[in-house]
């Protein structure tokens, strides 16, 4: 079995690569996808209350709303309902149903500014974690802070950093989180009400039906990639099938490529420029728990609840209030009585092994804290599967303290293995779309352009 271009993975990056190749007249393309479905980390589950509202297990927001090409297409097609859920919110803790936020938000912002100051005064200062930064800040600023600020401001900072990458604040890199240039989002975040699946299908529909039927192979897991022959690349699958190709685009999530149990074995071993980034732990472990209820018994108009943790020790068994969480109030956006909790390492992985009852026991005290009346049991409980899934092994990459920066990781991946073996995927795209669905889309666009140039001979100088 052979093709001019083989794309490993049928998520957003793989589909966009194929679209652009086909549009440029490169039609001998195959997509090999391990799962029995396309979309990768874009999975939407319809609500039982109203199937036109979906819960997204992967991407949920259009980030970079001012420049996001997926959002622009959705607006043009008019088939995606969005809501800007960055309005009314409430900060909650185990002891306070509403933590006065006005004076802790300013302290959180000052802690971030403090990071900038520290490193501008001493650029050689080694990287530190967000937790270390907050301790240093409190030591220096203690005399200017109230008890309330000392207690809650670091926890608010922690909540934001842990909810972005799913990594605990004692591992989140200050340099990465606050000092990396070009990573601020351009525009707000738009919540997708009817499921990111529609956004994915908007892309998929650009592939001709004949291609979708005959050139996308589901249930094909690529196991080895051999690039020792300079004229072609050989792939073998777990079933022992052999595929040969002139160009291969690997869109397997970087976490699954670089882990201790990698999805792909390389012959020969990866070149030096990739070996370093593949050896680092860059796993982000964001997860979600979705609780659907019969009735809404919490404030209907609050978009999000920011729940602060009760202590700094995240080790051991999961228990309520041990980790911060951000709750998305679906009722405010969709009138469906559901709450979606974001989770982080190690809770996201632990939850995947818990029973539905154990999950409810974990979040029930938090639900009680935001309730305005008697609480009910959920009629449905869903959780994300990404962290123990060998095809993802986390949510997306998140550079940790002391690791290469995400732009260094992207820089190494964007060079590919060589001119024939390329990487696409959201983790290969630097800047504000890194790790995002539209970053995956941009990366597919980049790799298709590269291969088209090679085939047309324009890229020969880049060899
Ligand atoms: C919990 C969570 C929340 C998120 N929230 C957002 C958000 O709000 N907004 C946003 O923009 N992004 C978000 N993202 C990120 C977004 O979902 C991803 O960046 C994007 O979907 C990645 O697309 P991709 O094509 O790069 O990778 P994937 O979607 O992972 O596609 C890779 C494909 O490769 C396949 N594959 C893997 N190994 C093999 C193999 N050996 N052989 C064959 N096939 C293989 C996989 O099955 C998969 O289909 C979130 C992700 C998670 C997990």
From TrEMBL:
Annotated Amine oxidase domain residues: 12-452
Pfam families the record matches: Amino_oxidase (PF01593)
Gene Ontology molecular function: any one: oxidoreductase activity
Listed name of the protein: Amine oxidase domain-containing protein
InterPro entries per record: Amino_oxidase, FAD/NAD-bd_sf, Flavin_monoamine_oxidase
Superkingdom as given in the UniProt entry: Eukaryota
Organism: Australozyma saopauloensis
């Amino acid at each position: 079995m052979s093709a001019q271009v083989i794309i490993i993975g049928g998520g957003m990056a793989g589909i966009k690569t194929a679209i652009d190749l086909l549009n440029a007249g490169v039609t001998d393309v195959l997509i090999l996808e391990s799962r029995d479905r396309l979309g990768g980390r874009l999975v939407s589950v319809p609500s039982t209350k109203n199937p036109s509202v979906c819960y997204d297990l992967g991407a949920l927001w259009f980030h970079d709303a001012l420049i996001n090409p997926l959002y622009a297409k959705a607006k043009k097609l008019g088939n995606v309902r969005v809501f800007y859920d960055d309005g009314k919110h409430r900060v909650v803790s185990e002891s306070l149903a509403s933590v006065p936020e006005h004076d802790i938000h300013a302290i959180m912002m000052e802690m971030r500014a403090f990071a900038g100051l520290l490193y501008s005064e001493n650029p050689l200062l080694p990287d530190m974690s967000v937790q270390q930064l907050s301790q240093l800040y409190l030591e220096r600023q203690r005399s200017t802070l109230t008890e309330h600020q000392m207690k809650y401001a670091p926890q608010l900072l922690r909540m934001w950093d842990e909810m972005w990458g799913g990594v605990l604040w004692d591992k989140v890199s200050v340099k990465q989180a606050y000092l990396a240039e070009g990573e601020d989002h351009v525009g707000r975040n738009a919540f997708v009400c009817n499921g990111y699946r529609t956004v994915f299908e908007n892309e998929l529909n650009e592939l001709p039906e004949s291609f979708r039927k005959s050139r996308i192979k589901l249930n094909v897991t690529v196991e080895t990639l051999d690039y020792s022959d300079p004229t072609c690349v050989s792939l073998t699958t777990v079933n022992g099938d052999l595929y040969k190709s002139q160009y291969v685009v690997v869109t397997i999530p970087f976490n699954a490529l670089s882990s201790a149990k990698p999805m792909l074995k390389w012959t020969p071993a990866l070149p030096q420029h990739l070996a370093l980034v593949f050896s680092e732990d860059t796993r982000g472990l964001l997860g979600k728990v979705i609780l659907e209820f019969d009735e809404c018994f919490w404030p209907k108009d609050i978009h999000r609840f920011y729940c602060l943790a009760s202590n700094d020790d995240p080790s051991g068994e999961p228990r309520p209030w041990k980790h911060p969480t951000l709750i998305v109030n679906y009722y405010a956006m969709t009138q469906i009585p559901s709450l979606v909790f974001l989770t982080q390492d190690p809770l996201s992985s632990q939850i995947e092994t818990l029973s539905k009852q154990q999950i409810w026991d974990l979040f029930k005290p938090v639900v009680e804290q935001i309730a305005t009346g008697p609480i009910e049991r959920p009629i449905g409980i869903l959780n994300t599967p990404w962290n123990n899934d060998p095809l993802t092994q986390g949510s997306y990459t998140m550079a940790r303290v002391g690791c290469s920066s995400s732009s260094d990781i992207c820089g190494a991946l964007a060079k590919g293995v060589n001119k024939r073996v390329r990487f696409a995927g959201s983790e290969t795209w630097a800047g504000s779309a890194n790790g995002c669905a539209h970053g995956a889309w941009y990366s597919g666009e980049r790799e298709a352009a590269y291969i088209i140039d090679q085939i047309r001979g324009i890229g020969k100088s880049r060899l």
